[in-house]
Amino acid sequence: MEQQKLEQKAILVGVNLNHQEDFEYSMEELANLAEACDIEVVGTLAQNLLKINTSHYIGTGKLTEVRALLEAHEGNLVIFNDELSPSQIRNLEADLDCKVIDRTVLILDIFAQRAKTREAQLQVEVAQLKYMLPRLVGLRESLGRQSGGVGTKNRGAGETRLELDRRRIEEKITALSKELELLVAHRQTQRKQRKKNELPVVSLVGYTNAGKSTIMNALMELYNPSQEKLVLEKDMLFATLETSVRSIPLQDNKAFLLTDTVGFVSKLPHHLIKAFRSTLEEVAEADLLIHVVDYSNPEYERLIDITNRTLKEIGITDIPTIYAYNKSDLTDQAIPEVRGDIVYMAAKPRIGIQELVSEIRSRIFKDYVQCQMIIPYDQGALVSYFNEHANVLETSYEPEGTKLSLECKLSDYGKYKEYVIEALK
Ligand SMILES: Nc1nc2c(ncn2[C@@H]2O[C@H](COP(=O)(O)OP(=O)(O)OP(=O)(O)O)[C@@H](O)[C@H]2O)c(=O)[nH]1
Ligand SMILES: [Mg+2]
Where in the cell is it found (predicted)? Predict the structure, then answer.
């Protein structure tokens, strides 16, 4: 199997439709995706078009060039930069006499290789089957062509077979989706419970391989080392496919939940985004996003755009955001440095972690107030509550009750206003 994979030699083909300015980068990205699938890229072809060629996606002249490149490099695979229609794949494979896949298949393959949890596996499989379903027609026609039959009888047999395959796949999608729903329901319950704790949620988002998981681990190391719950950080595309939530307890009884999740890439397949909706819901409910950027990548601004576009696509538009310009150790930028919403840092050598946390703090603990309260002695439970959930600066015992100088959530301040004797801030 592995042997077979290593022998894949591919020509990449892209169409720059209406002069998209991020076209060059998307081809580079396609090469990285191919590499992540152990495919050797032996040639690249691009074509500027104002309109896609409906039957073959590219023009006839380009098709000849692809054929020549395949021959020259003994290629056995052609990868298109966009999702192809079933008939385009069929026509291309017939004319090039070679396997043709698109960007979507590549991304789905990588996801399938990386999926470790049952939830991620189910999500990827559902997306793969949904991609396959409309493409079964092509399968039937190529079968028909192979057997050389064009008679009604043959076609009838093909159709029955197609219907059977289709039904089988639809049934499988239904069964897998059901299993997935159960898992998702379980996670939603967990999320609701967490919500009850009213801890603010901070989500790491960003382009794949930017260093999200490394930042998560750096924060765990600093604030929650007792829990051996580090996440996988690795130099590869889509190392993380599942959402992990960790509690980050700070010194003054404040805490937040930190979420690490799947990274983005441009043109993430639609089915995949849909299948991963439940995973991304965690991000949608965050109080603050940390947009992690690989600042050592000369194209980092493009990567920011891609992430923002993907966030928009999944309906996330108005969550306050801090930018973590990570991997700054590989640049000339002095670190650590904070400029507005940007923290220049390097998670791997642990530079700028404190600065990042202090930016997080100033945003998620905005609604904290300092005050003094006197809590009657028959309300002992409330004193314990504040000792656990607020930053108690001083405690003394007065005839009327326990006197606390504390910093607490605005909501708690409102709730227990009757005990407040002095609001400081
Ligand atoms: N030089 C340098 N490398 C870093 C830094 N932060 C992370 N890395 C490396 O970058 C690679 C990717 O890091 P991850 O934390 O796995 O990235 P991610 O954003 O979680 O990636 P995905 O889960 O694949 O989306 C790893 O090899 C890290 O060691 C940094 O500040 N400097
Ligand atoms: Mg990761």
Answer: Cytoplasm
Q: How far apart are CA 328 and CA 345, in angstroms?
A: 6
Check whether residue 90 and residue 75 sit in a common domain. Answer: yes
369 within 8 A of 413, measured Cβ to Cβ: yes
Binding residues for Mg(2+): 213, 240
- Decide if pLDDT at 150 tops 80: no
Q: State the residue range of the domain holding 127.
A: 118-184
| Whether residue 212 has its Cβ less than 6 Å from ligand 1 | yes
Q: What is the pTM of this model?
A: 0.84
- The tally of domains found in the chain comes to 4
Is 54 inside a domain boundary? Answer: yes
Instruction: Give yes or no: residues 357 and 232 share one domain.
Output: yes
Same domain assignment for residues 305 and 360: yes
- Does one domain contain both 205 and 353? yes
Q: Note whether residue 191 is domain-resident.
A: no
ipTM of the complex: 0.99
Helix (H, G, I), strand (E, B) or coil at 11: strand
| Residue 313 belongs to some domain of the structure | yes
Mutate to test the pocket of ligand 1, among 107, 205, 213 (most ligand atoms within 8 A of CB): 213
Output the average pLDDT for the chain.
88
- The DSSP letter of residue 418 is G
Q: Is 211 a pocket residue for ligand 1 (Cβ < 6 Å)? A: yes
Closest ligand 1 atom to Cα of 204: 19
d(CA 107, CA 34): 9
Ligand nearest to the CA of 233: 1
Asked whether 203 lines ligand 1 (CB < 6 A), one says no
Ligand 1 neighbour 347 (Cβ under 6 A): yes
In this structure, which residue's CA is closest to atom 30 in ligand 1?
Answer: 327
**CA angle 55-34-112, nearest 5°?**
95
